């Protein structure tokens, strides 16, 4: 897809702040540091747009990126991290749960797992929960550049098995470093957004 415009429009901390229009959106999900923001930047070919860091983020907001005046990418803070109080964590959990369950504009969830490792318990739970709520899930195996190509199939099989992936769910090996998988990821995302 040719990107003509891309900007962060709102960091939403609660439902009232979600954009009101009926434009379609895809949201990123995955543990902290897995490469969500890098994924957005790679697809948009905008290096510093979504903030990436080696230190896990503390902010609890849904970051809405408005693309080509047509759709949103929603960067979601990684799970498995919380430098906040239990109370805040629970409140945020409720915002997220409601978002993933009810948001009508949400056409698919891009779930990222680090393809070097077996998916974590949280990855499995998240995937199951999304499928239970009948969300389309596009699974991305990140950091593919760190795994020898000859081992990709083996790693992919482990991810499919651990997540108990449905056969028709996509699993795409991806690297923000090399651009591997970028076209496939775009295909899957645009299908979800506009079909
Ligand atoms: P949070 O916002 O904390 O949830 O993390 P995130 O999932 O957005 O991860 P982010 O994109 O910030 O990437 C975390 C680190 O992994 C950064 O140092 C990235 O440069 C690195 N990284 C992300 N994707 C890749 C990849 O495909 N290959 C390699 N080698 N490094 C990557
Ligand atoms: Mg991030």
Automatic annotation (TrEMBL):
Transmembrane segments: none annotated. It comes from Alkalicoccus saliphilus. CDD domains: YihA_EngB. One of its GO terms (cellular component) is cytosol. Belongs to the TRAFAC class TrmE-Era-EngA-EngB-Septin-like GTPase superfamily. EngB GTPase family. Keywords: Cell cycle, Cell division, GTP-binding, Magnesium, Metal-binding, Nucleotide-binding, Septation. Necessary for normal cell division and for the maintenance of normal septation. GO terms for biological process: division septum assembly. This is Probable GTP-binding protein EngB. Residues 22-195 form the EngB-type G domain. The keyword Cell membrane does not apply. Its cofactor is Mg(2+). GO terms for molecular function: GTP binding; metal ion binding.
